[in-house]
Amino acid sequence: MALIRCAAVLGLLGILPLGLRAETRPAGAIPPALREVAIDQKLNNQIPLDLKFTDENGEEVTLGKYFKDKPVIITPVYYECPMLCNQTLNGLLKAMRVLRFEVGEKFEVVTVSFDPTESSPLAAAKKANYVEQLGKEGARTGWHFLTGTEENIKPLMDALGFIYTYDEKRGEYAHAAGIMVLTPQGRVSRYFYGVEFSPKDLRLGLVEASEGKIGSPVDQLLLFCYMYDPLTGKYGAVVMRMVQVGGLVTVLCLGTFMFVMFRRDFRKKRSTAPEAK
After folding, report:
1. Do 205 and 256 belong to one domain?
2. Pairwise CA distance, residues 165 & 210, whole Å
3. Are 81 and 10 within 8 A, CB to CB?
4. Which domain holds residue 251?
5. 173: closest CA among 88, 81, 261?
6. What pLDDT, on a 0 to 100 scale, did the predictor assign at position 98?
7. Which of 47, 242, 76 has the alpha carbon at shortest distance from 155?
8. Stated pTM of the model
9. Contacts of 237 (CB under 8 A, 6+ apart)
10. CA 14 to CA 143: how far, in whole Å?
């Protein structure tokens, strides 16, 4: 599994390019608070769906409530984060604005605070802000903002591979930036790093996580032509597959052309042949 250190951290957190291991950089180039920060990929890992949290309405819920028949995007943040978490949520917001899939209809979003001191009124205010900015009715029922206790937060973050630390001197959490797409059964399917998320990549990730239950035939073809790269958290074109698809299309076109030409010649010969007496 790829260990992505301090991915796309802005300003103070903008130390490492996306996908570059911290071990490849001089130790002095990384602030002490960030040396233990990581997103440790745990693809296909099952998250514990019986963990209990509090939603934005102050009601106790289990994670399993959001895992039924749709893929789920999980965003690990904390609501009073001075910079990076807002950038992550803003990046997701921009991607969902142009995403043809509707939140609440085709997928769910679960934003979880990893700060156990935060409460549901703070989550409610955060939700109200982002629902209004998104401007899609489905966000009211499909985008959830949770808070919880340490005993429930830690097992979830461990299952996601999201490693963070608390910097007592700054009074802030040090953490990486990223979101995760999970299957309807609660298995980790894809990681997307940074604070900007490609709508195309997010769409393909959701299609894959849903096992083809959402999306169009075009999406299935794109999945055939693109492969997920766990090091970058992005989809890249697979040249050989594209060559194969192009070759198959060429053969089909040639076959169709030859069939049409032979059929036309056959009909022409029959029409000009003298009738038997």
Report:
1. no
2. 32
3. no
4. 238-277
5. 81
6. 94
7. 47
8. 0.73
9. 225, 226
10. 28
Question: How high is the pLDDT of residue 277?
Answer: 44
pLDDT score, position 7: 36
End-to-end CA distance of the chain: give it in Å, rounded: 81
Tokens of 141: 């029922």
Tokens describing residue 96: 């969902």
Q: Mark whether 71 and 124 lie in a shared domain.
A: yes
Shared domain for 152 and 19, answered yes or no, is yes
Strands of the sheet with 108-113, listed across from one edge? 143-146, 108-113, 72-77, 178-182, 188-193
Residues in the chain with pLDDT values less than 70: 1-34, 212-249, 251, 255, 257, 259-277
Type of residue at 173: Y
Task: Give the Cβ contact number of residue 83 at 10 Å.
Answer: 14
**Hey, which residues does 16 pair with through a beta bridge?**
7
Phi then psi dihedrals of residue 54, to 5 deg? -115, 130
For residue 10, give the nearest of 76, 86, 78 by alpha carbon: 86
Amino acid at 235: Y
The DSSP result for 221-266, as a single string, is HHHHHEEEETTTTEEEE-HHHHHHHHHHHHHHHHHHHHHHHHHHHH
Residue at a domain's end among 237, 252, 267: 237
